[in-house]
Amino acid sequence: MEEIQKKASTGVEGLDDILSGGLQRGRLYLVEGSPGTGKTTIASQFLLAGAEAGERGLYITLSETEEELRESAASHGWKFEEPNAIFELVPPESLLDEDQQQSLLYSSDLELGETTKRIFEAIEKHKPIRVVIDSLSEIRLLAQSSLRYRRQVLSLKHYFSRTGATVVMLDDLTSDSHDKTVHSVAHGVIRLDELAPDYGAERRRLRVLKYRGQNFRGGYHDLIIKTGGVQVFPRLVSAEHRSKFKRETLKSNSTELNTLLGGGIERGSSTLILGPAGTGKSLLSLTFAVQAVERGEKAAVFIFDEEIGLLFQRAKGLGLDLEQLQKSGNLLVEQVDAAELAPGEFAHRVRVCVEQHKVRTVIVDSLNGYQAAMPEEKQLILHMHELLQFLNRQGATTFLTVAQHGLVGDMRSPVDVTYLADTVILLRYFEAVGRVRRAISVIKKRTSAHEDTIREYRIGQKGINLGEPLTNFQGVLRGVPEMVGIDKALMDLET
């Protein structure tokens, strides 16, 4: 009895999670979406998942030929073979012959009746446990009216309910996208959408519109079609992911930086590093990643803005051998193409690093590149909020970089996420004694007190070197400070 009540897996990675385990057996479901959104691929995976469990499946196609379906399956490395079967429903020869078409009687009556009869015959012959009907647009066109179409769908539903089969009907929305007849009849409705950004690859997403008597994960979920089928990335809900960990203070190798940070960075917190281009944001964040590996932990770096080979070369010149750490398996470095990546897929990659690879330090460099993967800034804030909350609750320490517009003077950020981060480190250029210099300060820290001074720092062959607090300057953060006395800290750093 338990085996009968067990839900039918869709065979689509991520979709069963959204549906709380899969499809309730013996019910009729609708998967709708415009052509190219992945309906046929999902339906094929549904039947293949059943075949793996020894369940007979039947693909009834009214819109594609059997040859086309088999070729499509072969492109993913699949084969439609026992216990699955394909039934290609083509019009009888009498309906294709113009001389034999009815003139007084409506030919659509004969076509619809013949279509239904042949569907029932195919079901009786194969006795499938899983059924796919592709597509309802053809049946809607044959019905010609909403009333006849609804009656036809209801007759199919009642017939399938007697057989106990789990049925997935596909609708490509080409005949009437406003017809919601099947929505009220179906036990569950899944909608697929395709978005075309101004630049980059198309984006696909999925939403469950209805699932009777069953909780499901609402909202939009990104999906991709790749060789091997459709993969869905369930929308991340941070409240569902909590783990116990010790909130210890993680110290860096720099005494001055630790003092500036009030002792260090707390585990399970997020740090935002702000500054214009060239101030060392990436280097500072990578320093924390390297030190995490030195503590015996794993770290992950997601790079949006720089080519990975160039990053390795540049970091090595500053005393950080990232390539060697990557080869050891303790540092995961992944280059991300924002134009080809959906935000849900990026969140999934981060989750895999934390949950499967046990990564405890995550670097995102930078949010400027991450923003390019977002339709609008508001969604970026929501995505980052959930992602940071998830990482914090998993005990992962996160470092984010944001490149500000401009070099000196008034700095502006393309996106304001300072209120999301637990710690905010500000890097600035300033001019003093005829030279362009760099300054670092901590402007926010939720977890503990921090030093409220401004320190100059240098980038050299051994990484970042901080000096003593600048006490005889004012206006450093504006970029053009005034010297109110001989600053000993400035003199010390010179030597």
From TrEMBL:
Residues 6-246, 248-480 form the KaiC domain. CDD domains: KaiC-like_C, KaiC-like_N. This is non-specific serine/threonine protein kinase. Pfam families: ATPase. Its EC number is 2.7.11.1. Keywords: Hydrolase, Kinase, Phosphoprotein, Repeat, Transferase. Gene3D superfamilies: P-loop containing nucleotide triphosphate hydrolases.
